[in-house]
């Protein structure tokens, strides 16, 4: 083959590498909202692109296969060309490394990824037939299935959660965040509404242990405290509710409302009659579950514990305020 033919084949392979590399970014940057609207309105190639992207995991595997094939073949073509020109295989391999590394990095990675990052909604539908074609070829030959099986196998060996419900929930949350961001960009949601909705999407993964106040920082009062001891506490801290302990901080009886207690006209030397029971929540309880449990019991404060039911340890305190602020963000009460 002539040098011109080698260069022509190389250019085609680099373009294919750029297509696959950019498409990988496009899969994640493409607006699902615009894709769905375009498919419903029967816009050109939107329906085909929507069907192609039904299994995103398999499509990404096809893109990765195509990208590696294109880059590998491009490197082989340059190697053959340089072997003919230089005559030394070792020298040709060195030149290939020096030439192809920057060429592929710039023209098959950086430039296409940047273009797709900002123009995915415009480019992806136009190139949907080509993406569908290669995806079908790699699926039909079994390459996608093989890589999918190997991926699950290595994932299990590493003990990492894979597929199934966990992956579906993660992908669902990712799509929800994308839709919320796009709706905000359209001017439908205010920044505050957008922030709250993002928090609502994320809150199922947040546990009580992540939002509680650690036990070491909790201000507690001894059940044997009298009026004078409570007055000293009130002078130093501004809380209204205080956990009450007996025989050590790991044995919490409940809590007192310090203002309610001090309003009592009778003198007292212990807090037993003022103590309100409060629920106990495992540290791995989700924020939503904790809010539901505390609302059903009409409680505003709860103990957070670790360990099993027979031998639990108090690790912190959580209030309804802490839980609500995971959704609304911090605000003054």
TrEMBL record:
Keywords: CBS domain, Membrane, Repeat, Transmembrane, Transmembrane helix
Keyword Ribosomal protein tagged: no
Domain of life, source organism: Bacteria
SUPFAM superfamilies noted in UniProt: CBS-domain pair
Family matches, as Gene3D superfamilies: CBS-domain (3.10.580.10)
All residue ranges annotated as the CNNM transmembrane domain in the record: 1-193
CBS domain boundaries: 274-333
GO terms for cellular component: plasma membrane
Annotated InterPro entries: CBS_dom (IPR000644), CBS_dom_sf (IPR046342), CNNM (IPR002550)
The protein's name: Magnesium/cobalt efflux protein CorC
Organismal lineage: Bacteria, Pseudomonadati, Planctomycetota, Phycisphaerae, Sedimentisphaerales
């Amino acid at each position: 083959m002539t040098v011109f033919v080698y260069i022509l084949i190389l250019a085609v392979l680099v373009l294919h590498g750029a297509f696959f590399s950019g498409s990988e970014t496009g899969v994640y940057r493409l607006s699902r909202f615009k894709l769905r609207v375009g498919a419903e309105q029967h816009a050109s190639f939107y329906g085909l692109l929507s069907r192609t992207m039904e299994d995103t995991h398999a499509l990404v595997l096809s893109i990765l296969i195509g990208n590696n094939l294109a880059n590998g073949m491009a490197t082989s073509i340059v190697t053959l060309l340089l072997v003919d020109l230089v005559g030394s295989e070792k020298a040709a391999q060195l030149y290939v490394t020096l030439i192809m590394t920057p060429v592929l990095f710039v023209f098959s990675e950086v430039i296409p990824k940047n273009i797709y990052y900002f123009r995915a909604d415009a480019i992806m539908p136009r190139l949907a037939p080509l993406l569908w074609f290669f995806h079908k070829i790699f699926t039909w030959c079994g390459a996608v299935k093989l890589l999918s099986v190997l991926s699950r196998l290595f994932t299990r060996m590493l003990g990492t959660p894979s597929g199934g419900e966990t992956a579906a929930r993660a992908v669902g949350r990712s799509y929800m965040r994308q839709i919320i961001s796009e709706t905000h960009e359209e001017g439908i949601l205010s920044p505050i509404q957008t922030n709250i909705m993002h928090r609502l999407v994320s809150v199922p993964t947040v546990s009580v242990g992540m939002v509680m106040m650690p036990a070491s920082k909790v201000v507690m009062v001894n059940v044997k405290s009298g009026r004078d001891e409570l007055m000293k506490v009130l002078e130093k801290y501004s809380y209204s509710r205080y956990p009450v302990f007996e025989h050590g901080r790991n044995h919490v009886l409940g809590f007192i409302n310090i203002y309610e207690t001090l309003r009592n006209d009778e003198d007292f030397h212990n807090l037993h009659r003022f103590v309100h029971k409060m629920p106990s929540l495992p540290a791995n309880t989700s924020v939503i579950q904790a809010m539901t449990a505390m609302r059903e019991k009409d409680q505003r404060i709860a103990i957070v514990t670790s360990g099993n039911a027979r031998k639990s340890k108090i690790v912190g305190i959580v209030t309804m305020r802490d839980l609500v602020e995971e959704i609304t963000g911090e605000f003054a009460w």
